[in-house]
Records
---
Amino acid sequence: MTNPLYDALIAPLANRTTPVLTDSTGAEMTGAKLHAKALSYAAALCSLGLKPGDRLAVQIDKSAQALALYCGALAAGIVFLPLNTAYTAAEVEYFVANSGAALLVGAPDKQDELAQVAARNGARFETLDALGEGSLTDIARLIGPSFTPVARAADDLAAILYTSGTTGRSKGAMLTQANLLSNCDVLMAEWRFTDQDVLLHMLPIFHTHGLFVATNVVLRAGGRMIFLAGFKVDQALKFLPQATTMMGVPTFYTRLLDSPEFTRDLVAHMRLFTSGSAPLLAETHEEFEGRTGHRILERYGMTETNMNTSNPYDGERRAGTVGFPLQGVEVKITDPNTGEEVPRGTAGMIEVRGPNVFKGYWEMPEKTREELRENGFFITGDIGQIDADGYISIVGRQKDLIITGGYNVYPKEIELILDEQEGVLESAVIGVPHPDFGEAVVGVLVPRAGAKPDLDAIKAAMGESLAKFKQPKTLVEVAELPRNTMGKVQKNLLRQEFDAMFKVDA
Ligand code: AMP
């Protein structure tokens, strides 16, 4: 019997008497205990009638039990489908219906709504709360951990993760055993994870970053996690002294830097800080190095592909770039219209191929054909370029491309200049409808605390460094940029907000 992910990540826990998880109260869970809990959940899922290949949708808070449930699903060959805890019942219904989930597990305080969602879609419903208690845990406890893991092939599905869907309906990315295991092995090796590592884990576990990049790598390496419900500066400051590594989204780093208690001494012992899921400003990278002496290692990935590129562990971690393709991953930059490769240094569509790339979108063969080429290259939707040394940088999402007066404008180029202006903390550049130009470039600025940026001076500075068509037609100030839980700026919300600014009344 083989079950690649179970064998690599979970089976080794069976005899481990040392802790694999520590929570915010300092309570520890040994490897053997996590293993037993995983098998109990696997047995519970089977007792509820789930079979290998069935989908298990979960909308649950982060806890050791939630992680054990993920491990149990892998052992039972059941496809794990984690959902953002912020989704409303109506949103959850789409995922349950679309995936044909056999079981929905949700928080007890949402039981009334979610049980109906499940019932309407022919799924069962069980509960699991933030402390790991609930009807599913009751069943698991009753049944106990006697369970024989189910055989799985490398190409069998391990998980379905839905894309965040800011431009349309979310799509379920089908991730196989081999997708997850190959990526976890490559990351463990490239980032030098060992059984001596203690990862400060503050990311959500409904997303590829917290669930696969963080958890799979640590389990595979035999390390330990300080498993916190989410990111809080005071908690991070408290637990960093006990950790060797931290994985974060850029906002974790900017918020740590805002704290005077985040000092060089506090993190002198740390081995590695990584960042991803959204662009890390070069300025943050530099400020972090100035404060701590550590250079954050930035990497790039997505739901459909796991991780694609990383700055080097040894060698220069170049600010503002996402490094080189990971071992076994091919990256090429193509013309978005023709699909032909563009010359080095030219911005174009990032396409990736490798064992990490997903199998397709769940029951959306047409969407799959549009984005996953027959030759295996996935069209990421990200625009990027490769510099003379081979470092890849992301210019932006293709859907954020602005077409003004027939010219293409990549927001990132303008944002980099805006960010450098006096009094500007950060910026986002968007396109909004314009009667003459089709779209007009709008610069949205967040002032630094207490600063009053001089908008006329900024406009003049833009005039010096940018071609006329790239210069923002207008600059607006906002208190902060809208971001999702992974720290990504939600440009769709900004576009909605400023949609009517150039509208001419009929
Ligand atoms: P998700 O599928 O939610 O993980 O989002 C993936 C998207 O996040 C990618 O397609 C990129 O647009 C963005 N992303 C991830 N990592 C980075 C990074 N290091 N720099 C810039 N954008 C990133």
---
Amino acid sequence: MELKVQSGDITTWKGDGIVVNLFEGAMSPDGAAGAVDKKLRGLLTRMIKQGEIKGKLGSTTIVHTFDKLPAERVCVVGLGKQTEFTLDRARHAAANGVCALRNAGAKKIASVVHGAGLDHLTLESVAQANAEGILLGLWQFRKYFTSNEEVKTVDQVVLLDRDPAKLKALKEGATRGEIIANATNLARDLTNEPSNVVTPTYLANVAREIAKKYDLDFDVIDRDKAKKLGMGAFLGVAQGSDEPPCIIILRYWGSGKKGAPGLGLVGKAITFDSGGISLKPADGMQDMKGDMAGGAAVLAAMQAIAQLKPAINVTGIVPATENLPSGKAFKPGDILRAMNGKTIEIVSTDAEGRLILADALVYATQTLKLSPVVDAATLTGAMVIALGHHRTGVFCNDKELGELLFKIGEETGEKNWLMPMDPEYAEQIKSDWADIKNSGGRPAGSIIGAMFIKNFVGETKWAHLDIAGSVGGLLGTGKEDGYKNKFGNGTPTRTFVHLALALAAKK
Ligand code: BES
Ligand code: MN
Ligand code: ZN
């Protein structure tokens, strides 16, 4: 799919479909929609009067043009109330328009830039949101269908604006949006690929390719090196699997000081979580191919960061392994020793994500001295119960970092919610046999997961994003919503990228 930005008149554009918009409550179309309406001899105005087009957010209406315009179809996208318009609504509207036309069979589409006429938003940010919405909305994962009948694809989308003076800003914003959306779509592809394809070695190869293409440092810690480093928690999880585990490291140097620590991004990559000896129920277990979504987001974000080049050093760390039962697997009652020396009683081998994060976080905070460090993980089913699919739970030991992540969530649409971590919760993971145990039962399951991980970050500024619900349909219940698909949706790739940009801008 090709995305272009051009200046020109949408009423003379030739192709399969054009997208214009309408705010809720507007009684007559204006701007590009008005110009199209004129060519259609007032058809849109009439449909508005009849109440068939209302401008409601998320609505789309397609009419054919019967040669009154060179484009075959017009799609009118509802933007909701003008006073409530946000960048995320631009993202949604952009996705809704091109997806409706795609579903009608259009291959070549032109769209206005939703929100480009509003004063309170910059042209760059609006163009970025539109580009993101289009590319995220058109993403699909159909590669394993051998029949073409169900697969409709778009070849080209042109973002059009009449005013040539806007072109430069629109192009800059759209390029940024394209980089970020392509990265998010990479995370989606990796998350939705099955575990017989996406193994730890496969992820390492993807990371190696990203490093080569975008000039990042690449390193990998294999089983032997992990042993030497004393990563007993990571290795405990990995010991039941025949697939070689690894910890993938990508480093971007943007601060001007190569080798200086900088921001750390850590992502859980369990390429399949069977639960291990504490085997999961069969129902829905297939969704655990997506238990590497956090790791996928880290690799994807590193790709976008390498392209956007913010003035900050960023290191991505992805502990990757399967969690399987076997004659070699770790067992409930086992005691593991993490890289920082802390001992862990295993209560459930299904609480494995926190174990691989433990060693990765010790490596990030103590060995590499990164700060702040933000991890993302499909860590707990309890997170889905607490916040459903619409917000990521954020656990954070630093107020400023937590507030920044919240703000980024409102802008990107990868919405966050700050969760509590009162010290009392630590009671639940006290062990009779070791320093801590890896599960504290059902109450406050997500908070307990965060309290566990906290043992491995020392005093470093740190945030933990539990994306078990927000990443999409890992439980098969994700919700399709404009540019957000119901499957693994790439969260929190865009959050990571925006965090790097925001921290770089602060310095
Ligand atoms: N990967 C799962 C969490 C998960 C569940 C993610 C559903 C996405 C959807 C994680 O490894 C896990 O099994 N967590 C356990 C923890 C418990 C044993 C303390 C859980 O949530 O049940
Ligand atoms: Mn598990
Ligand atoms: Zn898991």
---
Amino acid sequence: MLNSLRTRLLITYFAVITVALGVVALALAVFIVRNPVIYRRLYMRQTITLQVARRRLKAASVHSYADAWREAAQIAATFHARALAISPDGHVLRDTDPTAPALNLPPLKGNRMVHGRVRTADGSLWGISALRLANGGWLVIAEPLPSPLKVLWRAREDWLMPLIEAALVALLLALVLAWWLSSWVTRPLYRTAAAAHSLAEGKFIPVPEDGPQEARVLARAFNEMAQRLEASQRSQREFVANVSHELKTPLTSIQGFAQAILDGTAGDTEKIRSAARVIADEAARMHRMVVTLLDLARLDAGTANLRRENVALRSLLENLLLRLRPQAEAAGVDLSLEADAEATVLGDGDRLAQVFSNLLDNALKHTPRGGKIAVRLRRAGKFVEIAVSDTGEGIPPESLPRIFERFYRGDKSRTGGSAGLGLAIAREIVRAHRGEITVQSTVGQGSTFVVKLPLA
Ligand code: ADP
């Protein structure tokens, strides 16, 4: 439960909200406690009290100092304030609240009204305002200043309630957001998981690519993987079908001829010999095919144990062409090699020779008399490219993407020992050398196979 994205999100939001509101509350508290308005209001009230007292003093009805004091004390009492009368030499003459702690009044100076904060003997703070009287004495109004906690408590309506309300709203919002966000993130994940389950049961349901970027990447990768899996399963099925089919034909003829020999229907010794020859040829063909298939399987599995040594490609091609020249001359095909520099790659020389020998064999097979086969070696950056071009019949566009497949033969009628495995093996060998093989072809004009290998 605590591991679910939803809970985690909710906890995170909750923490963020608490911290944010805590900071706001602290700032508000500092502001409220330090608020100068509180003092200003206090001094204003005291000023009004003193001004009223002064006006009363000037009025005709007030004659004596005692009258003036009485007036001031009365007004102070209506404001719940304390009033003091100070003599010109600074002694407290009267105090409306003599039981309250004594004020440490500073020496009062000047002709105007003065305001200030003073501390009592017991350490509490008082706000005072003082008015100078005609006789040189002072009339003082004093009120205790509230403690910061008391100020906060008094102002709680102003800040505590809105904060609590804000917290509730934010919490509700966080709940909705966490719900929505977690669904947005997890829905595509659950969908991909469900698709993976059904894929395990053999059904491929494409995952819709939506939700957050990361989930879309995952969905795309999953779909790609599933498609490749399907393709590889399909090609595996095809492969098994092809192998069975390819083995069936020679086996049928072996079986037929062997039966004929056993039945005695093969006839005379000469006929028996020719039947035995067919059997031997077909068995040899099957043997070659099985060996090739085993080889392919090893290359596929990466257990072919390729050597890794420096291979000089120009010399390798020169030797190969030297070997093929008599065959080319017999076929009336011109064979040429073009290479400006030597190119060395790291790999298995015999295997690479197998690749080019296969390409050249194919070119010879498909190029009519009078045609040309050109081999070009070219260095390109960190790679070497070997192009084998012929002026043969070319490969139809619909066959082009398939010629590297196992058992694919362009011309099905032509069996002549070819099993359609040559290019498949060539591609596996080139891939094992971290290279790639590509083909370009125009029907009637010829084909070019390009092998690209990393230089040593
Ligand atoms: P195979 O030669 O045994 O049939 P490959 O794998 O070598 O098998 O080639 C597959 C198919 O590609 C061939 O059957 C042929 O149709 C086509 N092909 C290969 N090389 C050439 C070429 N140089 N010109 C025309 N077609 C070619």
---
Amino acid sequence: MKNKINFLDLGFQPLANNYLRKNQLNKKEKKYRLKIGINTNTKLVSINKPISSKMMFNNKYPYRSSMSKTMLKSFKNLAISINKNLKPKKILEIGSNDGSFIKNFSKKKVIGIEPCSNIEKITKKKGFNTYSLYWNLKTARELLKKEGKVDLIYSANTISHIENLDEVFKSINILLNDNGTLIVEDPSLLECLKKNTYDQFYNEHIYVFSLLGIENILKKHNFEIFHVQNLDIHGGSNRYFIKKKINKGQILSSVNKQRKKELSYGIQKISTYKKFAKRVKSSKDELKRIFSKISSKNKKVIGYGVTAKSATILNYCKIGKGLISYFIDTTKDKQNKYTPGTKIPILKYQGFIQKDVDFVFLGAWNFQKEIFNKEKKFIKRGGKFIIHTPRPKIL
Ligand code: TMP
């Protein structure tokens, strides 16, 4: 692509959420070269060759946002604040997953769009108004006819999964009232660079947004950000509050503050990304060193939380079955399967970490606080966690 400079190569990666069944273990798995680049015009950072949405988001999608108390609490708090401050009559969520956000509102008030029909069904069964559709112009036009315009659109960890951002915002423009609010929440590029969380890049995360980058796209569609919140969610996310330009509301100081933070870190400079790429390579070497040291002592290592992010780490660092005995995870659709690419068995979380385990690799490092709180017994008996951010270490 014109104006794009690649700065990081994470090697050949499988589809990050494609958990393998036993009978697939001997079959050749399709892998894709994962390179990351920056568009020097827009400052948008993205992966090189996005895979079609239909291949990734279909009726077998395993991810459930309700699996973490942290996410549930964050959605609930946002819903309380929306009801108190914005008072919308009609709300649309793009990427409503299993309804963790919309369940906080009256059923008459909310609409959910979720392309993964297996997950969308869960919310529909609870009586919510959901559609199993991809977010695009066709969907927006169809919804406009059926539901009319809405006062608030919320989308968490979804817009960064859609390649055609122009279509995303054109579609939002169709459905959002002129005085309505758009709230977009996604991992923060600044936090990703600072914390060396290169695993924010996988085939589903087409973009990791900075304020600078997303602002450049919004401008084209006559939207502007009027407030930004920095969240701890997913290792550091930004929640952007956006309005149409014709709506002359106030722009809060948080926007300029975020812009200054990004510029002073050098988010607009290629040299920043080149340095990041060097740190990623050192992170890989260090993590491999930690694993080989532990394995030479015959210690038992398992993984905790099979995140899509961890697929990037394990495949990039080539950490497989020989180094991690198995993963535990609370998500039913991941259990009794194998991690993509590295083929590590995934077992059901039994409510505790087994007694013979010495080390736990934290795949769900973004929920470290929640997991450490839950696993006090393991920590008390001297069990240790391995984490790769901000640099690989044993905790
Ligand atoms: P995510 O980082 O993509 O949200 O995925 C988190 C994964 O970790 C998800 O599969 C659920 C799992 N998980 C656990 O198994 N136990 C936990 O306590 C938490 C918070 C998450």
